[in-house]
Write a structure and sequence with these properties.
heterodimer, A: about 110 residues, mainly beta, four-stranded antiparallel beta sheet, about 0% helix, B: about 120 residues, seven-stranded mixed beta sheet, globular
């Protein structure tokens, strides 16, 4: 199985500042079709996961442009600029390229 | 509003069975890839199963042979039949629109999620 490693485990942030989360895979997530299969989700307590980024850098409709995804191959980053209180929760990266789908261990983002 | 509403969770003894349901609104379940994902206490998110629009089904090794994913077109619903459950099946189960494995076919982003239903396996 593809192992997804996130860091840090815990990220205290000050509202208005930026935050970055790293996700690394032990196999390339670049498909022969040119797309990179790496998604980011936010899970808030008592809520369902919210898709924030798919295919490495694309934002679903309704996700603010404060969220951006970057990276290639095995090394990826989720950046949240100007963090707001509503951005707190646990962020997970996920790879749907190789079977089975696997998730990172999660990064808890809290307001400092 | 496009949404999924999950139900059916509860307390079940090891070795028992449970059926989870997920009803969709404003989109057609059988025209989409659909998935079940669980949040395992102390471990995080874990993919469980998905069903393709053509009816193919795929399972995580940990549930293969014990869980069955299915759908009912008349109810526009997705199901997860859980049998021979184990303590490690405890968690919050989410249904989602989307899924698949890109290297063997197609992947559709998981963009709509149900609210989750809690399964507790304990004697």
């Amino acid at each position: 199985d593809v192992v997804m490693t996130q860091s840090p485990l815990f990220l205290p942030v000050i509202p208005g500042e930026s935050a970055s989360i790293s996700c690394r895979s032990n196999q390339s997530l670049l498909h022969s079709n040119g797309y990179t299969y790496l998604d980011w989700f936010l899970l808030k307590p008592g809520q369902s996961p919210q898709l924030k980024i798919y295919l490495g850098y694309l934002r679903p409709s309704g996700v603010p442009d404060r969220f951006s995804g970057s990276g290639s191959g095995t090394d990826f980053t989720l950046r949240i600029s100007k963090v707001e209180a509503e951005d707190v929760g646990v962020y997970y990266c996920m790879q749907p390229l190789h079977s089975p789908i696997t998730f990172g261990g999660g990064t808890r983002v809290e307001i400092k | 509003e496009v949404q999924l509403v999950a139900s059916g969770g509860g307390l079940v003894q090891p070795g028992g069975s449970l059926r989870l349901s997920c009803v969709a609104s404003e989109f057609i379940v059988n025209a989409n890839y659909m998935s079940w994902v669980r949040l395992v206490p102390g471990k995080g998110l874990e993919w469980v199963a998905f069903i393709y629009s053509d009816g193919q089904t795929f399972y995580a090794d940990s549930v293969k042979g014990r869980f069955t994913i299915s759908r009912d077109n008349s109810k526009n619903a997705l199901f997860l039949q859980m049998s021979t459950v184990r303590r490690e099946d405890t968690g919050v189960y989410y249904c989602a629109r989307g899924g698949g494995i890109a290297e063997v076919g197609t992947y559709h982003k998981m963009d709509v999620w149900g609210q989750g239903t809690t399964v507790t396996v304990s004697s």
